[in-house]
Amino acid sequence: MRRITVLGVGYVGLVTGACFADLGNQVICLDVIPEKIEKLKRGEMPIFEPGLEEVVQRNAAAGRLEFTTNYAEAIPNAEFIFVAVGTPSGVDGEADLKYIRSAVENIAAHLDTYTIIVNRSTVPVGTGDSTAQTLIERGKQQGIDFQVVSNPEFTREGSAIYDFLNPDRVVLGSVDKEAAEAVAELYRAFTEKIMITDLRTAEMIKYASNAFLAMKISFINEIASICEKLGADVKDVAAGMGHDQRIGAAFLNAGLGFGGSCFPKDVKALTYMAEVNGLHPQLLRAVMDINRDQRRRVVLHLRELVGNLRGKTIGMLGLAFKPNTDDIREAAAIDLAHMLANEGANLRAYDPVAMENAHRILDGVKFCADAYEVAAGADALILVTEWNEFKQLNMPRLYASMQRKIFLDGRNIYDPAEMRAHGFEYRGVGRPLNDASADNAPLAVEPSLANVK
Ligand code: UDX
After folding, report:
1. With contact defined as beta carbons under 8 Å apart, do 281 and 262 qualify?
2. pLDDT tens track for 213-237
3. Could you report the per-residue pLDDT of 154-197, keeping only the tens digit for each?
4. Reduced to 3 states, what is the DSSP secondary structure of residue 11?
5. Are 387 and 351 in contact, with CB atoms under 8 Å apart?
6. CA–centroid distance, residue 316 to ligand 1 (Å)
7. Relative to the CA of 152, which ligand 1 atom is closest?
8. Domains, in order of start, for the chain
């Protein structure tokens, strides 16, 4: 049993704390936002993450998991302090480290015994070194009072508990192998897939991994655009590619592209790190450009199918950046809502869990009780988030209630032939534009995406 403190009760920190408590450790989770801590003390979750509530409640009841806003409670006699605070994007894309700095200052102020500080947040390469430097400047001795270990997380929102307990690998980086080994012992309770390297390499593994996954998504989205023009079906292309072990089937789903609090931020941060060091990360820039254009293409399709969008009613099915989360950060739905509002369209939307979060940042959208209310009177529907409850909709009922019968499948979850048999003017992403063979598809030059704002 180890004494662990976790700073930050977001998607990363709360899952980390709850899972370590579930393994028998004594865990204190701290956050500077009192409302979050008060909710957790009442057994309520500040975030939507499947399975988390049960793990938190059970371990809090067992006394293994405590919550506080007070650093004086959380820091003293902790053996490990996991820093899992946010690192949002700054104006130029660089990671904003204000929360990390605040956490480290508070650690310095309350440290009272040798403690291993474990950086769980995704931080620019070199942050581990600057963390140590800050503590030394405040009179702490590295190796005596503290040590720093990088331990980037690879958990996906919506499956974070599973990903935490079934890691493909645990990456640890430190100047001090003993400190890394001490953290490794925490993970050996459930995995042996542990890799120990140095601080900067561990920090870079995280960025390189996320950037590669984002690139894989932008790659298949670029292939999807070519498929559309040439009459190939990108879903089968991806399936054919995925059988190759060197490629792998995962993260080859063409659609509206990637959102969330990680991929966009991490690709931007890595691009920034490259540029400030005099490099020209063309591939990383292209990953972001392609992702932005995936949203813009929806507007081009709608202009083509609906005509002038001013005054037309467009329905969005799903708002979260992916299913099984309430997180809407960088979600495709946010970009689409802004672009369609710029076109003068009337917007309706429904999401099973993300509407409360969406309400806070989307004005002028009519939030509906379900997919059928979204469809009522709509000229077009866009499937934005592939929630399970959208996969078996009563299509004749949707069709009958719509003004125009246009359906854009932003995540390719429907069968084009079935949708067209229902009577919809259906378009997916990277799928043949009609049922006829594609060799009559017009090789039109794509209208400029630049005029979609
Ligand atoms: C990601 C990484 O997967 C995880 O390892 C890291 O720790 C945090 O960032 P997350 O952002 O939570 O996790 O979700 P993920 O499932 O990776 O999806 C990210 C985005 O990519 C979503 O918007 C999703 O819709 C999109 N996506 C994913 C695609 O567009 N196509 C795909 O094939 C897969």
Report:
1. no
2. 999 999 999 999 999 999 999 999 9
3. 999 999 999 999 999 999 999 999 999 999 999 999 999 999 99
4. coil
5. yes
6. 20
7. 7
8. 3-197 (3.40.50.720), 209-438 (3.40.50.720)
